Amino acid sequence: MKPPSPAKAALFLAVIFLAGGVLGGVWGYAQGKQRWTQRPSRENIVKRISQDMRVHFRLTDAQVVQVEPILQETTEEVRRMHAATHERMQQLFADSDARIAEKLTAEQKPLMQTWIARRESSSRKRGKWTPAAASSNPDGQGRKPCCDGDASKASSKE
Questions:
Q1: What is the pLDDT of residues 105-147, one digit of tens each?
Q2: From CA 124, how far away is CA 147, in angstroms rounded?
Q3: Could you tell me if 76 and 42 are in contact, meaning their C-beta atoms sit under 8 angstroms apart?
Q4: C or N: which end of the chain has fewer Cβ atoms within 10 Å?
């Protein structure tokens, strides 16, 4: 058996290189997307900030021990503020939808319910919908229904 020609060897290496590049790109994209779509845990936030402070401020271990509880309290307060703001925004949308629904005809209200269901589905996909918000309202959608009728009935008419 004779050895492959230099052109075949170069082609073989190019194919392997391209395949590695494609697979690496797909893997990197998937990892990056996963990292950016998941919220970091409170513990990871505190660790990251305290590590950053340790480096930038040259904190001692004793200072880190003193600073971390402050960071934990702060991140918890930010979480509470975010939850309260989210609830207020949900209520604002619900109130707005109810006011708009008053202006609609009986034929238009199911269309609005479908539109709202689509908007909320899109919001869930982007990670802005929370089960806690859904469980606090009777329709399980994170907010009270605006119009006469059931959103699930309206969305099934599509």
A1: 999 999 999 999 998 888 777 765 544 444 444 444 444 455 5
A2: 21
A3: yes
A4: N
The 10s digit of each residue's pLDDT in 56-102 is 999 999 999 999 999 999 999 999 999 999 899 989 999 999 999 99
Cα 66 from Cα 57, distance rounded (Å): 14
The CA–CA distances, whole Å, from 154 to 6, 58, 115 equal 66, 59, 9
Q: Which of 132, 147, 125 is nearest to 90 (CA)?
A: 132
CB 130 within 8 A of CB 86: yes
Give me the count of residues in the chain: 158
Which amino acid belongs to residue 143?
R
